[in-house]
Amino acid sequence: MANHLFIPLVSPLLGATLAVIFGRQRLVARAMVLASVLCNLGYSLWLLWLVGTQGRQVSQGGGWIAPFGISMVADGLGAIMLCVASVLMLATVAYSFFTLDPAYERYFYYPLLLLLLLGVSGAFLTGDIFNLYVWFEVLLMASFGLITLGGTRGQLEGGLKYMVLNLVGSTAFLIACGLLYGVVGTLNMAHIAERMASVREPGILTAVACMFLFAYGSKAAIVPLYFWLPTSYHTPPVAVTAIFSGLLTKVGAYSLYRVFGTVMQNELQHLAPLLLLIAGLTMVIGVLGAMAQMNVRRILSFHIVSQIGYTIMGLGLASAAGLAAGLLFTAHVMIVKAALFFIGGAAEQIYGTAEIKPMGGLARREPALAIFWFLGILSLAGIPPLSGFFGKLALLQVGVGQGAYLISAVAAGTSILTFFSMLKIWNEVFWKKAYADMSKLPRVGPGLLLPGAALVVVSLVAGLAASTLVDYSTLAGTQLFDQAGYIGAVCGADGCEAVYESALR
Amino acid sequence: MYDSVILRTVARLMLPILLLLSVFMLLRGHNLPGGGFIGGLVASCGVILQMVAFGPSFARRVMPVNYLALAAFGVCFAAFWGLPALFSGLPYMTAFWIEPSIPGVGKIGTPVLFDVGVYFTVVGVTTQLALLLAEEPVLFPMPPEPPGAEPEGAPQA
Q1: Chain B residue nearest residue A60, CA to CA
Q2: Domain-located, residue B59
Q3: pTM of the complete model
Q4: Assigned domain for B93 exists
Q5: Structural domain harbouring B67
Q6: Is residue B155 part of a domain?
Q7: pLDDT tens digits, one per residue of A43-71
Q8: Cβ–Cβ of A6/B75 closer than 8 Å?
Q9: Per the structure, how many domains does chain B have?
Q10: B83 in Cβ contact with B47 (< 8 Å)
């Protein structure tokens, strides 16, 4: 029993409530928030090491045995995602300390961030599909608050679109859970996986799988369902956009990996061609959308969509190696995309606008910012010493190895387009001469620069330590695809059905 | 606010009764119908009844509580009582009970304390929501009645 799995849930919950109670004493509240995020970060690093050396960690909530209670399971995928989420949350909290209008603090900005972390951590660790739904609701509630906090016209408009689409997705998720429970009679993921094989009418499982694909896909912003993302992500403060880009769509992607990779593997084989088609369309349409935009955050928002395509490609390859490669890429893009939002946000803060036309001359004025931006876009495009290269390399290797030439070619071509559209920001914001007199504009302080720069450095280090990461993601992909191992870890060697039968007797 | 002598008299009487009933509901809740959620709703009904009868500012005065902090405290309290199990090496939220049940109160254990946290959360959230809605300024006031028009439905003197 690994009871420590509850620490990343208890710590943000207690941190958020204490920050609300001590809301008046700003420093105390901030200290609570920071302590809770640091606790999660330290714990997730330790969990990463523990899962790497000792395999899956399992605990049962309240001591109820496996197929009946709520299981908490940490495998390689969950541990990596938890770790990246904590890193991003730390950067976001630090960036918010320096940049955010203090009025936000009175309306519980930091507690909402912690509740977001709580929902995300719970989603990454739970082993129960209905519990996953509950964690989705927790993080959606927090994100509804964060996206509309401030109450400007644009925010309410974007927030409404965001909320409507997410509620539709959640409803589909709930209906799919209900159908699945009706078919297999359990909600524990290990038990579902075990009973999958003995379902009399497998056709209905394909329908359920498609509903899950719709539900998670709408949250992950895959192609026909992505339209809410670029219209809402540029409205809230930069820190909120950055953490949303890092966490929210990726929770949808994580759920796709978990449900299709572990629980419904047969359906993954059926849906693989569809997933690859969606992946290709998502990549291309996302990047084409980005090329048409003239606003830093809108460009980056369309890139989120495009990058989700690569993640879905890893899933669509439908093998342990494909999932491992997709996971490596996803972890990389979470970090780099948030870094680019932070740095782009710093430029936005200087000029007071996110439109790229009136900006200019930032490379001469803020060389440090420009260097980290350039490293960031190199990493996003996939240039060798940085982490993006290894993620894309792994995906292309697996793609070509499995004979999926078309999607591999699309993925490679999209990289070039990605680089091109990022260079557009580089040229307009950093490289070209400024039209107007720039001497009166504010300088970039360390608080604006450091969170983004630190994340770029993380990406650089991840690129230099690529062999360790590739090994770890291979382990995570193997663990994810190993259905029997998952069932054994959650319910014991005899499987969930044996526990269930003996409890009934 | 609804101006009625009957409602106001009843609301005055009901506040202590509803609060007592809510505690009763809370304590019997572990094995019988009731519990922290129901108890919390009953308690907030008591306050909301004052709000309906006397208006939100009176309801704030009669129970001078920071409902938001109360809700946060409730969540904190509920989460806290899962921790003893965690520290003694059992999964989070595993129940501990004091074995001989106390007459009139029932068995006491960590799930009851968890329920107390739920009670505070529900009281805080529902009451705060109701009060905020009642206190909301009129954003889109109706156009003033034309002079001379009979107000509809008003009692005739």
Answers
A1: B91
A2: yes
A3: 0.92
A4: yes
A5: 5-135
A6: no
A7: 999 999 999 999 999 999 888 888 888 99
A8: no
A9: 1
A10: no
